[in-house]
Amino acid sequence: MEAGTDEAGRGCLAGPVTAAAVILNENFANTMLNDSKQLTELKRNALRPIIEQEALTFGVAHISPKEIDEINILNASIKGMHKAIDLLKVLPEYISVDGNKFKPYKEIDHACIIKGDGKYMNIAAASVLAKTYRDAYMEQIHEEYPMYNWKKNKGYPTKEHRDAIKKFGTTKYHRMSFKLLPEQLKLAF
User: Fold this and answer.
1) Which of 62, 131, 159, 185 shows the greatest Cβ crowding within 10 Å of its Cβ?
2) Domains plus CATH for the chain?
3) Where does the RNase H type-2 domain start and stop, copy by copy (predicted)?
């Protein structure tokens, strides 16, 4: 009963950081499954229902921009992973974490694996769920603020997104503790 966990959206200027945890059946196999960043949007969206149907259990959790601003992105990412693990129907015996930082969850042993989403199926599955759930959320809030084009940039710091912040200002979905515009750190003389 090993859970894989990963997050999506750490480097974004807007929207939540989204984490997922997945326990796969030991016989699970899928040749398409890989780190979500290595997959096309079409492949990620095709994998999501397969993972949801074939996993023993999974959980997905969003941590809001407000909370990210309060506790910082690293703590928010770890909190999201913990919340995703809380949602599992079975308590894992071991947790495989993508990346190099994690705080112990209950009394369960864990390992941090750098680039684990490209090495372990359960982390890759969590990576796909985190990314697809977050993307769907960003497409939903795009309808509220279409001028930022979140359906395309998903809240990442693209030139288009930064130009929209310059023109329209920020929203309740922006992370105010992040450097939203390069000029924020320049001194005015």
Assistant:
1) 131
2) 2-142 (3.30.420.10)
3) 1-189
